[in-house]
């Protein structure tokens, strides 16, 4: 499709010129990448009854575990053959104080994990028995711990030193691994520096009775700077090049128990005393009674009681019942797998969509539970270290990204063995394409894989935000019976919700921040949709003497971490952020969340306001909305749409291989295919994923590689080299010569050599190291092998297109629902439910709950315009003035909505007068009109 046209006849349009078209950069850099990858696959699942009960009750009875563990049995076995076989879970487990990880370092934009990008520094964020692999060895953390448990335990800060005195625990043993807090080896990089005895004046002592989890927020009396921050700096200097903790050596003991402080977040963590916990675990294994569970909870987490839904979920899981758990954000879902992980003998595998979340959850594991993580951008040695520890039984809870399930080696660890006791699917709504952020990679998480290949009997799916339709889908995919749904209200009642329609959002925002209650709130998140907004607003706030920083995926990860650090340390009052901020952020005292832009769904709204008031205090959430943003965001929901014929053409290319041998690696270059089919790369990936994971497995997807290689020989002449090296011979045979360079396609050569593309690349690399060749690679491509050719490509294309259309409709319905709820509150609420002025907690809560419980496909009314008297005339003019270009109805509608697409780039098309002119009108209505006009236009020009 050629679309290079400058002249579009704008001068003769039917409507007067619009206000200047929105900047394409702004329009097309919404940070919600969720939408970009939302398209996915057709799932033709068997229908099972929808979950009916909102709360399932379980009767806990001991169950005999069938599982064997690689972990040797403990010295003290349970008294009888009770359900859950024992493991030496606690002795000599390490205690870890970690430098808080940086959740924003996920390379994938907005912190979302796609294709498993994460920086390697997370990779080694691992707790293990022998080692703590720190990702920044040059930045060890020191924490001083007061060992004198006999002291009164009153906290104070002197000379920036932090120490925790634990009254409730005693030091269990003195270990030699002095550099490692509680560690058993000497390779740990986190430092525990013991105070010199009697130097109490240097240390903070907290009166915590061993169990408290108070917020640590002491300030240095002199500087006013948080001691943890200062401490952090000090420790860096002091520990340079010194891995072993000197202080620890001096004192001869470093295995402290009690409460300790995360040096960066200031958060307290419980150290533990292994024997009482071990005994408590045994008691739960013998009888998972409320009493036994509460006493374990107290020992491991320091809490006196369970929150709503927790006990029920834990009991169900301990009984081996696969469970769907829906609790509000911040309600404490993690605990529901942490305690079972401790009790089960095998591994608990936690699947999480974000590296940031994984890090956060790993960080928040109680010290009695060993954790590790695997993500795809780990260095090979880091991943193998984790796997080694896993196989040794040194990891109880392993966090993995869904992409890990593509890795055959990983799956093979568990195949045929009963190593896994529990699989936890966190953010389980991602499994469903009807959720607000479906992840194609979550499609791999099917009960068949988890049970069949990983040998995991029990699955715990957790989410805070799912409509009934999504829940049904997830439970069906994971084979969770409808009776095993544990669900509590979706909104915390400490969130005060308000809404206002705004004519000038910037001005209204400042006014809001300067008025009660917001003016007194010390920690505020402002959510925006567009990156550019976050920068503009934060600057504007600073200009108005409000301490603010922006946060979005376009900011370098180091700076993002810094913003998060400052915010967590209460040194920045406001963070103006895109959706990228907040995932994995467990700052408990965020007092307000303000939406500067309309969220894309009520799920997103609930998730984001859930960042506020996690400490249970009354917190304020205000939503500013306007029509223009709604139109813009609604329009963007259509940017991934595809047409039947384009999908058909793509399928023809996918299955166009000559040989169709299952051994052949085929490829589709991302960029050129995207342009050729006018389809976003993510949409192509979605279709490929569906072809792999749908009901029929047509292809097997392989890792992305650059497929075009340009090669130069430097030492040996090519023919002589070819006679010695059969790979080179094949390359010469398959290459095109251009300017003395050999250009070839990697998979083609690999195929004739009957080798894997990756092995060919390794071979080239070794020749390069020897100085024989240099080469360049380009054209990133999706690689795959064909397993089955569809009998009817057209039918398959139609099914795929229809399904993608349904997903699109679902997304549009979501944004309509959130707009309607806001508009109702602002314009139509009769205040009968108790709302007053801008305060609309009752009516918003009601609408949100209604939305979550609504009938799956119920109609959501829209206020968007369906027609315009100038539309037809404008389309006519547009087509006439671009008569040389082949348009589809979708292409015309996109241009009229100002939506970029691969074949109609904004660099060319935003110049037209029609670009974005009809963004306020329903996209599909424009497509319909464009279709009719195109038929007329083509009819006239053909005859
Ligand atoms: N029984 C309990 N008593 C007191 N605090 C608890 C209890 N259970 C969990 N918490 C605390 O509540 C906070 C939120 O817990 P958690 O992170 O598990 O929430 P979540 O439900 O996973 O939230 P989100 O959906 O936002 O990730 C944590 O600080 C946790 O320690």
Automatic annotation (TrEMBL):
It comes from the Eukaryota. PROSITE patterns: DEAH_ATP_HELICASE, HELICASE_ATP_BIND_1, HELICASE_CTER. Residues 1-84 are annotated as: Disordered. CDD domains: DEXHc_RecQ4-like. Residues 50-59 have a biased composition (Polar residues). Residues 508-683 form the Helicase C-terminal domain. Keywords: ATP-binding, DNA-binding, Helicase, Hydrolase, Isomerase, Nucleotide-binding, Nucleus. This is DNA 3'-5' helicase. It comes from Erythranthe guttata (Yellow monkey flower). The lineage of its organism: Eukaryota, Viridiplantae, Streptophyta, Embryophyta, Tracheophyta.
């Amino acid at each position: 499709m050629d679309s290079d046209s400058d002249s579009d006849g704008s001068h003769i349009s039917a409507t007067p010129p619009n206000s200047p078209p929105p900047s394409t950069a702004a329009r097309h850099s919404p940070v919600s990448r969720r939408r970009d990858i939302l398209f996915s696959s057709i799932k033709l699942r068997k229908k099972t009854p929808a979950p009916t009960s909102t709360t399932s009750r379980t009767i806990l009875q001991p169950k005999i575990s069938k599982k064997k563990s690689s972990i040797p049995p403990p010295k003290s076995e349970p008294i009888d053959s009770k359900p859950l076989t024992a493991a030496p879970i606690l002795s000599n487990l390490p205690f870890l104080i970690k430098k808080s990880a940086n959740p924003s370092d996920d390379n994938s934009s907005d912190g979302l994990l796609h294709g498993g990008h994460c920086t390697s520094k997370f990779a080694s964020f691992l707790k293990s028995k022998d080692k703590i692999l720190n990702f920044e060895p040059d930045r060890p953390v020191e924490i001083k711990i007061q060992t004198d448990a006999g002291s009164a335990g009153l906290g104070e800060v002197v000379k920036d030193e932090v120490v925790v005195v634990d009254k409730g625990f005693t030091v269990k043993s003195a270990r030699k691994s002095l550099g490692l807090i509680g560690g058993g080896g000497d390779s740990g990089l986190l430092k525990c520096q013991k105070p010199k005895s009697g130097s109490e004046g240097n240390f903070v002592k907290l009166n915590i009775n061993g169990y408290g989890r108070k917020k640590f927020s002491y300030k240095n009396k002199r500087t006013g700077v948080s001691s943890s921050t200062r401490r952090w700096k000090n420790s860096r200097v002091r520990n340079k090049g010194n891995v072993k903790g000197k202080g620890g050596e001096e004192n001869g003991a470093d295995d402290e128990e009690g409460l300790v402080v995360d040096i960066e977040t200031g958060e307290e963590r419980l150290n533990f005393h292994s024997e009482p916990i071990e005994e408590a675990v045994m008691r739960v294994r013998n009888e998972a009674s409320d009493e036994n569970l509460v006493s374990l909870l107290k020992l491991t987490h320091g809490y006196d009681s369970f929150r709503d839904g927790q006990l029920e979920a834990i009991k169900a899981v301990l009984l081996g019942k696969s469970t769907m758990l829906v609790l509000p954000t911040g309600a404490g879902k993690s605990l529901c797998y942490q305690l079972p992980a401790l009790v089960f003998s095998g591994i608990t595998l936690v699947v999480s969509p974000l590296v940031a979340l994984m890090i956060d959850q790993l960080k928040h594991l109680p010290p009695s539970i060993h954790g590790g993580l695997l993500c795809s951008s780990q260095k090979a040695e880091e991943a193998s270290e984790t796997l080694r520890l896993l196989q040794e039984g040194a990891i109880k809870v392993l966090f993995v990204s869904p992409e890990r399930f593509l890795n055959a080696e990983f799956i093979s660890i568990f195949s045929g063995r009963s190593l896994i006791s529990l699989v936890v699917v966190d953010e389980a709504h991602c499994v469903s394409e009807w959720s607000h952020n479906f992840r194609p990679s979550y499609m791999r998480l099917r009960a068949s894989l988890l049970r069949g290949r990983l040998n995991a009997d029990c699955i715990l799916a957790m989410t805070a935000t799912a409509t009934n339709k999504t829940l049904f889908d997830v439970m069906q995919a994971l084979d969770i019976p409808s009776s095993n749904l544990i669900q509590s209200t979706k909104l915390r009642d400490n969130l005060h919700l308000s809404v206002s329609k705004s004519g000038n959002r910037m001005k209204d925002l400042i006014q809001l921040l300067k008025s009660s209650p917001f003016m007194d709130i010390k920690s505020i998140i402002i959510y925006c949709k567009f990156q550019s907004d976050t920068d503009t607003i934060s600057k504007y706030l600073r200009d108005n003497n409000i301490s603010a920083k922006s946060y979005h995926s376009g900011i370098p990860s180091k700076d993002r971490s810094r913003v998060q650090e400052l915010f967590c340390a209460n040194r920045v009052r406001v963070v103006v952020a895109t959706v990228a901020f907040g995932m994995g952020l467990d700052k408990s005292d965020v007092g307000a969340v303000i939406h500067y832009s309309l969220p894309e769904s009520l799920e997103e709204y609930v998730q984001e306001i859930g960042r506020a008031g996690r400490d249970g205090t009354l917190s304020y959430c205000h939503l500013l909305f306007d029509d223009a943003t709604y139109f813009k965001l609604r329009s963007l929901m259509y940017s991934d749409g595809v047409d039947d014929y384009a999908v058909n053409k793509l399928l023809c290319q996918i299955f166009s291989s000559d040989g169709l041998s299952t051994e052949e690696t085929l490829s589709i270059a991302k960029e050129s295919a995207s342009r050729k089919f006018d389809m976003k790369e993510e949409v192509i990936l979605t279709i490929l994923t569906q072809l792999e994971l749908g009901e029929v497995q047509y292809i097997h997807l392989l890792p992305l590689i650059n497929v075009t290689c340009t090669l130069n020989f430097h030492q040996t002449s090519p023919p002589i080299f070819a006679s010695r090296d059969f790979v080179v011979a094949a390359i010469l045979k398959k290459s095109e010569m251009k300017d003395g360079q050999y250009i070839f396609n990697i998979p083609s050569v690999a195929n004739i050599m009957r080798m894997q593309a990756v092995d060919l690349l390794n071979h080239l690399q070794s020749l390069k190291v020897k100085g024989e060749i240099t080469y360049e690679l380009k054209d990133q491509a999706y690689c795959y092998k064909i397993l089955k050719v569809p009998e009817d490509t057209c039918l398959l294309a139609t099914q795929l297109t229809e399904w993608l259309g349904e997903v699109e409709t679902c997304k549009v319905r979501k944004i309509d629902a959130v707009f309607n709820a806001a508009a109702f509150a602002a314009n139509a609420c009769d205040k009968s439910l108790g709302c007053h002025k801008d305060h609309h907690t009752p009516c918003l809560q009601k609408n949100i709950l209604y939305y979550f419980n609504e009938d799956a496909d119920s109609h959501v009314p829209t206020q968007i315009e369906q027609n315009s008297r100038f539309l037809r005339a404008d389309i006519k003019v547009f087509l006439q003035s671009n008569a040389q270009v082949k348009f589809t109805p979708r292409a015309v509608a996109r241009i009229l909505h100002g939506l970029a697409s691969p074949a109609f780039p904004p660099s060319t098309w935003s110049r037209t007068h029609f670009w974005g002119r009809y963004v306020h009108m329903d996209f599909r209505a424009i497509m319909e009109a464009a279709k009719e006009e195109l038929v007329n236009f083509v009819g006239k020009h053909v005859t």
